[in-house]
Amino acid sequence: MKILVTGANGQLGKELQTVLEEKFPGQAVYADSGVLDITDSAAVNAFVTAGDFSHIINCAAYTAVDKAEEESGLCNAVNHEGVKNIAAAAEAIGAKVLHISTDYVFDGHAFTPYGEGDKVNPTSVYGVTKRKAETALMGLAPGSIIVRTAWLYSPHGKNFVKTMLNRASTPEVSVVYDQVGTPTYALDLARAIAAILGSRQWVPGIYHFTNEGVTSWYDFAEAIFRTTGAKTQVVPIPTADYPTPATRPHYAVLDKSKIKGTYNIKIPHWYESLQHCLRRLDAIK
Prior knowledge:
Elements: E1 3-6, H1 11-23, E2 28-31, H2 41-51, E3 55-58, H3 72-93, E4 96-102, H4 125-140, E5 145-149, E6 152-153, H5 160-166, E7 172-176, E8 180-181, E9 184-185, H6 186-198, E10 205-208, E11 215-216, H7 217-228, E12 233-237, E13 251-252, H8 257-263, H9 270-283
């Protein structure tokens, strides 16, 4: 097995570097945008062909959701065209692709957890480009696996957990209470990906992965401050009082039955994983 991880310096990419070296030591190559520009089709084809990879895990993405409303061309180049380039290069050498997608392919109007086959209806530039990538990948490389996730956080990069910790010295912080979903610890997602790679079967298609449980951004913030002992007061506000350029799904809960059943993956509750992440962050202060 020879694995290429794109977007290797992002939240998930960083966690994959640790997990893959434990599970498949010396079998992975980690490429960030400085090493491989996935929007350059010739560069992608040359890199993938020379590497003779058996698997490509695509974590590379344009994830500045609000900025994407202004930079739609760049967002599409990375999230859509880049995935097409990876798919074509992988298919040419027979490599398997595992691509990371998002809950933003849904409009968030549901009241029960989204299944993989539920109707998509992205309402932001970011969501549209991620859905285009899903369609392109399955068209060009139908043997691929797509894993949709949501509310990703880790000790690395920018994310909600670290934003709240940076506000821990302030008297109060306002957080929306009417957006509901499930936080996803990037380390748990990395372990799930490793489990797929290590499985005796490779079942193409779309899968959903988040941690277990359901919460709101407000309750998530409360949990962060409660666990760390911060005295910051969390003020609940409606989405209407916190306007953003990109529309967020009000409901982003994903049904994980398929990935758990197919690959026998055990998923921790979001609060348990949050505590693990906070311990790691405290250890590196």
